[in-house]
Write a structure and sequence with these properties.
The protein is of the alpha/beta class. It folds into two domains: 277 residues, Zn peptidases (Aminopeptidase, 3-Layer(aba) Sandwich); 110 residues, 2-Layer Sandwich (Alpha-Beta Plaits). It contains nine helices and 16 strands. The strands form four sheets. The protein has an eight-stranded mixed β-sheet, sandwiched between helices. The protein has a four-stranded antiparallel β-sheet with strand order 10-12-8-13, covered by helices on one side. Strands 7-14 form a two-stranded antiparallel ribbon. Helix 1 crosses helix 9, helix 3 packs across helix 9 and helix 5 packs antiparallel against helix 6. The two termini are 25 Å apart. The relative contact order is 0.19.
Length: 397
């Protein structure tokens, strides 16, 4: 039996265990940087698998090593995130979240389970590959400053330093059994915007005595869109969205303050910084011109995600070998953000997509929704494919 067939067979053998693990994690989600039970569970599984070393990083994260023959020849890294989202699950399944208001709605339970599966397969194949694989189980992907940035600061990529890093993420737009790749620029930077408009509230029937914060905030929301539509170079993707507006008045009460929260995303760091200055200046000057004050806070988030072109093209070829030509799809730029981008700024990185959709079974909901779920066949594929990609990357000089 060749190596690929061995990996596929091992992935198939451990599939029932992967389902059990994923369902346990799904039923017990924890928010970013609060993944204490999840962290303890992951460590226990790694110990049972028999990895060479397990070291804590970022409080609830782990770095583990699996060493093959000639372990110092080459080292690569594989990453999974372990946190969940503040979403109340609406799925009626026997593995539904038992933690009120918390849900694995972004597939991190799948990522963690898959990487544990990779660990188990690699440990059983230690004599089949040369080099070492560093496993990163990372907290806090969903919350600034991002667990990846903390893992890096605490030395997760040092002693030894990997030559490259791979990560995978569920994709409910892609049918289960298919894998998506994109070389080069892939995902956007992300910044959080917190805006307060301060005026003079009062009776809605006497606007001449007030400084209407609701009206001014509305002007600011509309005016800021011209930063994206007119100040940005049209060839640079940019997105500005406000998803939270609090004007706590009444039908006849204009409030003293209005709060706005939004996000700004782009794929160019120079333009990103320029846009910050323009947005803040426009909002503050517009509010002042209408008799109000604007406090405009920008919390700088994750950088853009760059998939190393040679590495990603190689991983795509290897994935074709493992999955078949017909099961590999090309991805477009996606304006969502991921803190895996921090790793991509440090070393050659490949972040690819694991199909989880099954329309016949009604598994079609997007990530970050209360009805998100996956076709669990993706667990076998995720563990097997990532093992294959890791070993093939170790073979590269």
């Amino acid at each position: 039996m060749d190596l690929k067939a061995k990996i596929q067979d091992l992935a198939k053998q451990i599939y029932p265990e992967l389902v059990e693990t994923r369902r346990h994690l799904h039923a017990h989600p924890e928010l970013s940087f609060q993944e204490f039970e999840t962290s303890a569970f992951v460590k226990k599984q790694l110990e049972l698998i028999g990895v060479d070393s397990i070291e804590t990083r970022a409080n609830t994260g782990w770095v583990a090593m699996i060493r093959g023959r000639n372990p110092d020849k080459k080292v690569i890294a594989l990453r999974a995130d372990i946190d969940a989202l503040p979403i109340e699950e609406k799925n009626e399944v026997n593995y539904k979240s038992v933690n009120t208001g918390v849900m694995h709605a972004c597939g991190h339970d799948v990522h963690t389970t898959s990487l544990l599966g990779v660990a188990k397969i690699l440990c059983s194949l230690r004599n089949e590959f040369e080099g070492s694989v560093k496993l990163l189980f990372q907290p806090g992907e969903e919350k600034l400053p991002g667990g990846a940035s903390i893992m890096i600061k605490e030395g997760a990529l040092a002693n030894p330093t990997p030559t490259s890093i791979l990560g995978q993420h569920v994709m409910p737009l892609i049918p289960v059994g298919k894998i998506g790749f994109r070389s080069g620029l892939y995902m956007a930077s992300t910044d959080e915007l917190y805006v307060k408009v301060i005026g003079k509230g009062g009776h809605g029937a006497m606007p001449h005595l007030n400084v209407d914060t609701v009206l001014i905030a509305s002007h600011i929301i509309v005016a800021l869109q011209q930063i994206v539509s007119r100040a940005a170079n049209p060839i640079i993707p940019s997105v500005l969205s406000f998803g939270k507006v609090i004007a706590n008045g009444a039908t006849n009460v204009i409030p003293n303050e209005v709060y706005l929260e939004g996000t700004f995303r782009t794929l160019d760091e120079k333009w990103r910084s320029e846009a910050h200055v323009k947005m803040k200046k426009l909002a503050e000057q517009l509010a002042e011109s209408m008799g109000a004050k604007c406090e405009f806070e920008i919390r700088r988030g994750y950088p853009f995600l760059m998939n190393d072109i040679p590495l990603t093209e190689k991983m795509k070829v290897c994935a074709r070998e493992y999955m078949g030509e017909e099961n590999i799809v090309d991805l477009d730029i996606w304006m969502a953000a991921e803190d895996f981008s921090y790793y991509s700024q440090e070393m050659p990185a490949c972040f690819y997509r694991l199909g989880t959709r099954n329309e016949e079974r009604g598994i079609v909901s997007s990530v970050h929704t209360p009805t998100f779920d996956v076709d669990e066949k993706s667990l076998e594929i995720g563990a097997g494919l990532m093992t294959w990609l890791a070993i093939k990357e170790l073979e590269t000089n």
